[in-house]
Specification:
About 0% of the residues have low confidence. The longest helix has about 40 residues. The protein is α/β, with parallel strands linked by helices and about 525 residues long. It has 15 helices and eleven strands.
Length: about 525
């Protein structure tokens, strides 16, 4: 019999049961006992591991023991009910089961042919999610749009920016011949303008505008594309722009208002100014729930401006978008009907296990045209004969892709919209209760909460608040993160972890207050 180094089905069954038992009894049942923030020093985990790989295989028992003894102490517990930092990376028991099946079948869903179930379930799940969130119908596959599951909202935004760039460059190429004819016809007028009295400002301005147009028209299209974000937009959008353009020269950062939403009047002015300089405004990202403060940009007004200027509007609703599962919170969708693309994560407030992020497109062909390359080894009859199949490899950067839709399907079926709404509504209810506790304390709210994120500080300077945050996190009993708003150090308290209950919020708030009292004695 040929030798095999792999687990036999019998051994897999045994160790699989052991792992499930560990997850249920040693992890889920004891989540609250783990320090939320890993209490290890840099290099500590690495010091317990050998420098070289093993020559001979080791027992599964030894591997699992090292996992429990070495790896687990170095885990920051994102699934802890005392997780209030950043935004969450949620899971649920049903999606862990789905992940096990995904790993077992290990389908590579790059083409319809390579995994029909992976592809067709994904098209259905994306349409389900459009319906669940109350998004415009044009984001559904059956309505000519379509959704795709990416690894993250960062990748989704990059794909949207790629589609917008392709669309803008195609449009610019069509207009190129028109500009060439303008060059010849306008030059005599430019010469005439140069002889005019400089005090005639209107003619001078016309001259400068035309001059900029003609000068920039000679530059390659890529050098003329300009994009627009706010000063509170997620940093990944800046990174995406750098990836596509090698820098940020034409990335415009629009100031925000007192509630940290984008100033639409300044956006419109910037777009107008850029057009006057011969640039091509092509992309704008509006955020529904910024990372720092949970602010919501005025999407409807931004959409009007983008539509009037042929600018692709992408809406980043990575965390807050999930709230629209509850009809009473669908104000987060205001204005998205004018968006060309929309992202929402299924691994934040929706318990879909990282990585799992929806990208919806009004017109997927713009992205497909930009990314589709078909070497001979990928050619197949279903794709080429127009059977209406979707090949998701053309909707993303990498070729390969995971069976992410399976965990969405499992979660949607096991929890139902009723179960999902319960968790969202409960988290917002807990946020409102904590808001009142903060308002009746010595702490101050920096910005009124919209959904489930609270930004607060103690009115005693940045050093005090930073030391307070560090002392709270060092206990291991909870984890908060921070940001800076208007230049001030602010603590963030986000309530959206799957297992968080009212007592966890109360315990966390009591700890924060207690640590503040201890620090006040040192500062007095």
């Amino acid at each position: 019999m040929e030798k095999s180094y792999h687990l036999t089905p019998e051994a897999f069954r045994y160790w699989g049961h052991q792992v499930i038992d560990w997850i249920a009894s040693e992890y889920y049942e004891k989540l609250e006992e783990f320090p939320v923030l890993a209490q290890v020093k840099p290099g500590e985990i690495r010091s317990h591991l050998p420098d070289t790989p093993p020559i001979e295989g080791e027992s599964v028992d030894a591997i699992l023991k090292d996992f429990a003894d070495i790896i687990v102490p170095g885990l920051t517990q994102w699934q802890s009910p005392n997780w209030f930092a950043y935004y969450p990376s949620n899971s649920s028991p049903i999606t862990v089961i789905a992940e096990l099946l995904i790993a077992a079948v290990n389908n590579q869903g790059m083409l319809w042919q390579t995994s029909p179930s992976c592809t067709e379930l994904e098209t259905l799940m994306t349409d389900w999610f459009v319906q669940a969130l109350g998004l415009p119908d044009h984001f559904q596959h059956k309505q000519g749009g379509g959704g795709v599951l990416q690894d993250s909202a960062s990748s989704g935004c990059l794909c949207a920016m790629i589609a917008a760039r392709k669309q803008a460059l195609d449009r610019e190429q069509e207009e190129q011949s028109w500009f060439s004819s303008v060059d010849k016809s306008v030059q005599p007028q430019l010469n005439e303008f140069s002889q005019l009295d400089k005090s005639r400002n209107i003619l001078t301005k016309i001259k400068m505008v035309v001059k900029h147009l003609l000068e920039n028209q000679q530059k390659p299209g890529l050098q003329r594309l300009s994009a627009y974000i706010s000063s509170e937009t997620h940093a990944s959008v800046i990174k995406n722009f750098r990836i596509l353009f090698g820098g940020t020269q034409n990335l415009r950062i629009i100031p925000v208002d007192e509630q940290f939403g984008m100033r639409s009047d300044l956006l419109e002015k910037q777009i107008c100014d850029d057009r006057g300089r011969g640039l091509i405004p092509f992309f704008c990202c509006a955020t529904v729930g910024t990372t720092s403060s949970g602010a919501i940009d005025p999407v409807a007004e931004i959409g009007r401006i983008c539509e009037a200027n042929s600018v692709w509007l992408h809406v980043d609703a990575a965390h807050y978008g999930t709230a629209a599962i509850c009809p009473e919170y669908r104000f987060v969708n205001d204005g998205v009907e004018k968006a060309e693309s929309y992202s929402v994560n299924a691994h934040k407030w929706f318990p879909g296990n990282f990585d799992c992020s929806f990208l919806f497109l009004r017109n997927p062909s713009a992205l497909i045209d930009a990314l589709s390359i078909t070497p001979e080894y990928l050619r197949n009859r279903p794709s080429e004969l127009g059977f209406g199949v979707v090949d998701y490899r053309d909707w993303q950067i990498p070729l390969g892709r995971r069976f992410r839709s399976l965990k969405v399907w499992f979660a949607m079926r096991q929890l139902g919209l009723e179960g999902l709404r319960y968790h969202i509504e409960r988290h917002i209810e807990l946020t409102k209760k904590l808001e009142q506790l903060i308002r009746h304390s010595d702490f101050e709210l920096v910005v009124p909460p919209i959904l489930n994120l609270l930004c607060f500080r103690y009115p005693k300077g940045d050093e005090f608040n930073q030391l307070l945050l560090e002392s709270v996190n060092q206990t291991g009993k909870l984890f908060l993160s921070h940001t800076k708003l208007n230049g001030r150090f602010v603590m963030r308290f986000c309530i959206s972890q799957t297992y968080t209950q009212e007592r966890h919020v109360e315990q966390a708030w009591n700890l924060v207050q207690g640590k503040a009292r201890e620090l006040l004695k040192q500062f007095s």
